[in-house]
Amino acid sequence: DQQVKQNSPSLSVQEGRISILNCDYTNSMFDYFLWYKKYPAEGPTFLISISSIKDKNEDGRFTVFLNKSAKHLSLHIVPSQPGDSAVYFCAASADFGNEKLTFGTGTRLTIIP
Amino acid sequence: SAVISQKPSRDICQRGTSLTIQCQVDSQVTMMFWYRQQPGQSLTLIATANQGSEATYESGFVIDKFPISRPNLTFSTLTVSNMSPEDSSIYLCSARRSTDTQYFGPGTRLTVL
């Protein structure tokens, strides 16, 4: 039972354009969401998070949008840079203090120079 | 953020043997966790490493197979016991402070022959 789904295993985007990575979840108890980036042979690196009381959170080139009614969140990267090429994981938890994270399967983003 | 190191970074082991993975954090943290990422899969939480007491295991993971220690607030070990090829995975340690998000170590790539 995959409670967090990333339906696109891969995505290619031209450098300078916007990258949009999507994530869907099924568990209505999830109320805190995170995005991690992972390079080969490294652990996941925290990027940005959002709690369910918000619908948008921004940090530099990264913006996360949350649509609770649709149980959907997305990560926007603009402008995309070659260093953004990595695997991106969406994760969710029932509350910030809980921190038991459920991860999606990841989307491999390739930025084309 | 916390800086997390893991040893070994990779290993190739024979079936039936055991391997202990070490996780060291550069500062005291409230919580430490162990995850597994099987080939082509998402990250799955194995257990929460509790300081001074038995770890809390997730469904599908048992102490006899994955004994965990956490003797203090900066160090934990995970042992993969009586290994089989199905245990070939990346094993990741993560940690968080009470008011912070969860940060990951670089992972240990285990291959069981």
Describe this structure in words.
The complex is a heterodimer of chains A (113) and B (113). In chain A, a hairpin with a 6-residue loop joins β4 (32-38) and β5. Chain A is mainly beta. In chain A, the strands form two sheets. In chain A, strands 2, 4, 5, 9, 10 and 11 form a six-stranded mixed beta sheet that branches. A five-stranded antiparallel beta sheet of chain A has the order 1-3-8-7-6, with no helix packed on it. Chain A has strands spanning 4-5, 10-14, 19-25, 32-38, 45-51, 56-59, 62-67, 72-77, 86-93, 102-103, 107-112. Chain A is built from no helices and eleven strands. The mean pLDDT of chain A is 93. The model of chain B has no long low-confidence stretch (mean pLDDT 93). Chain B is mainly beta and 113 residues long. Classes of the chains: A mainly beta (113), B mainly beta (113).
Form type of chain A = globular
Percentage of residues in strands of chain B: over 45%
Rg of Cα set of chain A: 13 Å
Structural class of chain B: mainly beta
Spatial separation of the terminal alpha carbons of chain A: 38 Å
| Beta-strand content of chain A | over 45%
Q: How many angstroms does the end-to-end distance of chain B come to?
A: 36 Å
Question: What count of helical segments of chain A does DSSP give?
Answer: 0
Which quaternary structure do these chains form? heterodimer
- Give the ordered list of helices and strands of chain A: EEEEEEEEEEE
Helix content of chain A: under 10%
Radius of gyration of chain B, rounded?
13 Å
Count every helix of chain B, treating DSSP H or I runs of 4 or more residues as helices.
0
Number of strands of chain A: 11
**Largest β sheet strand count, sense and barrel closure of chain A:** 6 strands, mixed
- State the order of secondary-structure elements of chain B, H for helix, E for strand: EEEEEEEEEEE
Largest sheet of chain B: 7 strands, mixed
